[in-house]
From TrEMBL:
Belongs to the class-I pyridine nucleotide-disulfide oxidoreductase family. InterPro entries: FAD/NAD-bd_sf, FAD/NAD-binding_dom, FAD/NAD-linked_Rdtase_dimer_sf, Pyr_nuc-diS_OxRdtase, Pyr_nucl-diS_OxRdtase_dimer. Its cofactor is FAD. This is NAD(P)H-quinone dehydrogenase. It comes from the Bacteria. Residues 359-466 form the Pyridine nucleotide-disulphide oxidoreductase dimerisation domain. It comes from Ornithinibacter aureus. Residues 10-337 form the FAD/NAD(P)-binding domain. The keyword Cell division does not apply. Keywords: FAD, Flavoprotein.
Length: 473
């Protein structure tokens, strides 16, 4: 528990992303005087230039693929004169205008909620001058600085796209994932460098919108950190839909020519494209804001070191979100921020349960995961029985024209407790929830199997997988 009096405490939060604004809502509810310092807009990168816009772009591309699926089910588009329409076309100017407007609307909604509970938002650049004092430069556009006294400080400054000396983005043809929403025309040939989550998601989004896409992957397969069966499905889908995937191909440099880009690989090959999208990781925004000067410990990678309740090495200073490197998920950032305020202000709190975190990759189909992983079982760290059911056998999937994907469950060998799962399917982000409930509340496979599901439904495959893991004595 924290030692300050919530009703008389001043909380200053550096950063208005999910870690910051969720923390502010909790602190305000507990009666604290709360100030958020955010230069670029409430919601931070997650709402303005990352999660919200990227998933909106991906959703648009999903609609494009729905036309193809409908055609396979016997549905054809016709114009007003009865001629068949063969292709749907994306107007990227209109797509990105909607994406930016949606992000701005979400930011405005969060700002309104914060104002309703009395949280003050200061637009400026913040740094710590002591564990109990924050200096804001250019506060609300004014010259000079404003000093804010604080009983509790939360650092939620996030991260920024990693930039390499040999591949400098220009915002026009060489782009980071935060710059793509200013494009007005669809890239003719997009070279995506990096096959992690961001690279895979955006590569498929632009492929769906109509670009030729080349994915440069330094590893043997795309999504190297994910379930190998899931990654194999996604890579097969990529290739089948026309994406060129260059495996074991590490980028050495990216340069711009008059009307194109040249991506040079370490083995000397050159990949030409109209645009390049750099998705080679991120860097925490922790330097130059006074953290080291006041004694906050940073890891060698520059992330703020925190414990299970988001405390840093300095009393009264907490941290949340991508600047901590715990898990780069908006949901985790929000949980860290809420946990930090509950601990600091004396409310009931429990350590962050990372083994219950569900995550999703917004490819098509999506990949959702929770709990233990394939690697945990393969290495012997976890004793579990595993079952995988292809979605192609599910009656609802047949009706929807779904041919790719599966449900995989991990159950403790002996007790049958559900330890984790993987769902590869359209809207897997929704389907993983019952598996997450089972993992977090320690249900066994028989309890999941005996729970009614709608027939026909995709969730029926989750119950069926549980039935197949039934433990006999």
């Amino acid at each position: 528990m924290g030692s300050v009096n919530a009703r008389s405490s001043k909380v200053v939060i550096l950063g208005g992303g999910p870690g910051g604004y969720e923390a502010a809502l909790v602190a305000a509810q507990l009666g604290a005087d709360v100030t958020i310092v955010e230069r670029d807009g409430i919601g931070g990168a997650a709402v303005l230039t990352d999660c919200v816009p990227s998933k909106a772009l991906i959703s648009t591309a999903d609609y494009m693929s729905d036309f193809e699926t409908a055609h396979g089910l016997g549905v054809n588009l016709e114009d007003s004169e009865g001629d068949e329409v063969s292709d749907a076309v994306a107007d990227l100017f209109e797509v990105n205008r909607r994406v930016r407007a949606l992000a701005a609307a979400q930011s405005a909604d969060i700002s309104t909620r914060l104002a309703e509970v009395g949280v003050r938002h200061v637009a400026g650049t913040a740094s710590l001058t002591s564990p109990t004092s924050v200096r804001v430069e250019g506060a609300d556009g004014a010259e000079g600085a404003e000093d804010l006294a604080a009983d509790v400080v939360l650092v939620a400054t996030g991260a920024t796209p990693r930039v390499m000396d040999t591949a400098r983005p220009d915002g026009e043809r060489i782009l980071t994932w935060q710059q793509i929403y200013d494009l007005e025309t669809l890239p003719e040939r997009l070279v995506v460098v990096g096959s992690g989550v961001t690279g895979a998601e955006l590569a498929q989004a632009y492929l769906g919108l109509g670009s030729q896409v080349v994915l440069v992957s330094s590893r043997e397969r795309v999504l190297p950190g994910e379930d190998p069966d899931a990654a194999t499905v996604i890579e097969d889908v990529f290739r089948r839909r026309g994406m060129e995937v260059l495996s074991r191909s590490r980028m050495a440099a990216v340069e711009r020519t008059d009307a194109s880009v040249r991506v040079t690989l370490e083995d000397g090959r050159v990949v030409e494209g109209s645009h390049a999208l750099l998705a080679v990781g991120s860097t925490p925004l922790t330097r130059g804001i006074g953290l080291e000067e006041v004694g906050v410990e940073l890891s060698p990678s520059g992330h703020v070191v925190v414990d299970k309740v988001s405390r840093t090495s300095v009393r009264g200073v907490y941290a949340a979100g991508d600047c901590t490197g715990v898990l780069p998920l908006a949901s985790v950032a929000a949980a860290q921020g809420r946990t930090a305020m509950a601990h600091a202000l004396g409310d009931a709190v429990a350590p962050l349960p990372l083994h219950y975190v569900s995550a999703n990759i917004f490819t098509d189909p999506e990949i959702a995961t929770v709990g233990v992983s394939h690697a945990d079982v393969e290495s012997g760290r976890v004793r579990a029985d595993v079952i995988t059911l292809p979605l192609a056998r599910n009656p609802r999937a047949k009706m929807l024209g779904i041919t790719d994907g599966f449900v995989k469950l991990f159950a403790h060998r002996g007790s049958g407790l559900v330890l984790g799962g993987v769902v590869v399917a359209p809207r897997a982000s929704e389907l993983i929830f019952p598996v997450t409930l089972a993992v977090q509340h320690r249900l066994n496979v028989d309890q999941v199997a005996s729970t009614f599901t709608v027939y026909p439904s995709l969730s029926g495959s989750i119950a069926e997988a549980a039935r197949r893991l039934h433990v006999t004595y």
